[in-house]
Automatic annotation (TrEMBL):
CDD domains in the record: ABC_NikE_OppD_transporters
Keywords: ATP-binding, Cell membrane, Membrane, Nucleotide-binding, Transport
Membrane topology designation: Peripheral membrane protein
Stated name of the protein: Methionine ABC transporter ATP-binding protein
Source domain of life: Bacteria
Gene3D superfamilies per the UniProt record, alphabetical: P-loop containing nucleotide triphosphate hydrolases
Gene Ontology MF annotations: ATP binding
Native source species: Herbaspirillum hiltneri N3
Stretches assigned to the ABC transporter domain: 5-255
Compartment(s): Cell inner membrane
Length: 327
């Protein structure tokens, strides 16, 4: 398979009076055509900033300070702003956690969806409207003709999110980045959306990055998974292998803290401590102050290496013992 997206040594920094916050620090990964990659980690680990960096949506005082972002071999960072605008929403799309980042509150849904199609495709208004209607049906919206004539404020939060997802699917992009888009949806609709996303990837070759903290969603949706901590990917590889046999202590801690893994009646397990400030990261491995396996060697910055068929940033990988499944 061919990599639809290849990210190489991506760095995104935010300048502040307190110094430079390295929100994304030397991140590399690839997503092949038709493949789903899960990007997981705690809040503040850099997952969303990675997505925004790929989309070219980092504003001052932030900036993409280094690295390459290759979409089908073309470096997005080298493109002029106007060319990037033509690609955004057409060849790459992003579904945000808040649907109102996608929807215009003063325009009807049909107007917004027709514009999203005709901005990138030379089709008639009627053809664009038919595509919009079909997209709404695919995300589980009943009475699509009635909904097309409505305004965003006439929808529930979950319904607005489904419309935002439908808009992202309209032009069948090469890459879709999903920033926890199903958090506000009920389980039944979430399952329907995940099924449609998988179907789209398999049939059209669209690559998908699913940003989430929900490991159970990643276990059922993704082909590969990358685990982020303090702006860096600490472990990545085949989703089944990583989630059942984690080698990085942080990955193991995330899985162990899932409520489904906790014995009934006992206190929830958790990773000790808290994520360090990006302005005051400890020297060496950023996880070492919370890690039971840390030694003096961890004061040095670990390089990414291949261990047991996955990329790993750790001086002391855990034993390859089953950690159980995520349900």
């Amino acid at each position: 398979m061919t990599a639809a997206l290849q990210v190489e040594n991506l760095q995104t920094h935010f300048l502040s009076r307190g110094g430079i916050a390295r929100a994304v620090d030397d991140v590399s990964f690839a997503v092949e055509q038709g493949q789903v990659m899960g990007l997981v980690g705690e809040s503040g680990s850099g997952k969303s900033m990675t997505g925004y960096s790929i989309m070219g949506l980092i504003d001052a005082p932030g900036k993409v300070a280094g690295g390459r972002i290759l979409l089908n071999g073309r470096d997005l960072r080298s493109l002029p702003a106007e060319e990037m605008r033509r690609i955004r929403g057409n060849r790459i799309a992003m579904i945000f956690q808040d649907p109102m980042m996608t929807l215009n509150p003063v325009l009807r849904i049909d107007t917004q969806m027709i514009e999203a199609v005709r901005a990138h495709q030379d089709v008639s208004k009627d053809a664009a409207l038919a595509m919009a209607r079909d997209a709404l049906v695919r995300v589980g919206i009943a009475a699509p003709d009635e909904r097309l004539n409505a305004y965003p404020h006439q929808f529930s939060g979950g319904m607005r999110q489904r419309v935002a997802i439908a808009i992202a699917l309209l032009n069948k992009p090469d890459l879709i980045i999903c920033d926890e888009p199903t958090t506000a949806l009920d389980v039944t609709i979430q399952g329907q959306i995940l099924f449609e996303m998988q179907k789209l990837c398999r049939e059209s070759g669209t690559a998908l990055i699913w940003i989430t903290h929900d490991l159970s969603v990643v276990a059922g949706l993704a082909d590969t998974v990358s685990v982020m901590y303090a702006g860096r990917i600490v472990e990545s590889g085949d989703v089944a292998r990583v989630l059942t046999h984690p080698r990085h202590p942080y990955t193991h801690g995330l899985i162990a803290s899932a409520p489904s893994r906790n014995p009934r009646g006992q206190a929830l397990r958790q990773i000790p401590g808290s994520t360090p400030s990006l302005l005051k990261l400890p020297a060496g491995c950023a996880f070492r102050d919370r890690c039971a396996y840390a030694t003096i060697e961890c004061a040095q910055t670990p390089e990414t290496r291949i261990v047991d068929g996955r990329a790993l940033r750790c001086f002391h990988p855990m034993a390859d013992a089953p950690a159980g499944s995520i349900a």
